[in-house]
Amino acid sequence: MNLIIKLFLIIFWLDINNTLAEEPEKVKQLLIENKDFIYSSAVLFNVQPRLIASIIYVERTLNVNWMEGQLDLLLAKAGYSSSIGLGQIKIHTAEWIEKKLHDSTSKYYLGDVYKSYIPKSKSRDEIIERLDGPEWNTKYVAGYIAMFCHRWLNDGFDISARPDIIGTLYSLGPYRVSDGSERKPHVNPKANYFGEETVKFYYSDQLSFLFPRVTD
What is the pLDDT of residue 130? Predict the structure, then answer.
């Protein structure tokens, strides 16, 4: 069976099984195991560890098919922009993060110091290798969150205490697929289902002993 047929069968199988997300307890265990990476990435990008944990939890309990962990790398190496690793970062998203992180003219540019935290990858294979490991993956997650917060704050809207909106942006991305237009900051943002689940976990007591909420 050649690679194209294998990939077709894989995609078909994932499509018909897309409701079989990861079990919440399994995801919680992953968060516990990767606590140090989550905290170190949070410190680098000045993001709440609980916010990172909340987004990873929702991403994996909503969107990760039970077979995906075995297939992501195969799809990625075959040229697909599949979601990889702990925070399920897509390859094209990681490329975008790197590009904006190093572009001082971008509205998402965080500052010179952040360039060293995620240096530009030399190849697609290097991006895939990075995303496959939790240490690098959580850096991309934290960087992505920080870039959304920075972009909105510069336009006068502080969303750092809005897990629902950050989760929504994380799930949808900065640009609309339909026409490529930016999801610009505005006064009355609405959460999608992903964002609603993010804020639900954030304000719950789940893993609060490990990832406490930041109080005002």
Answer: 96
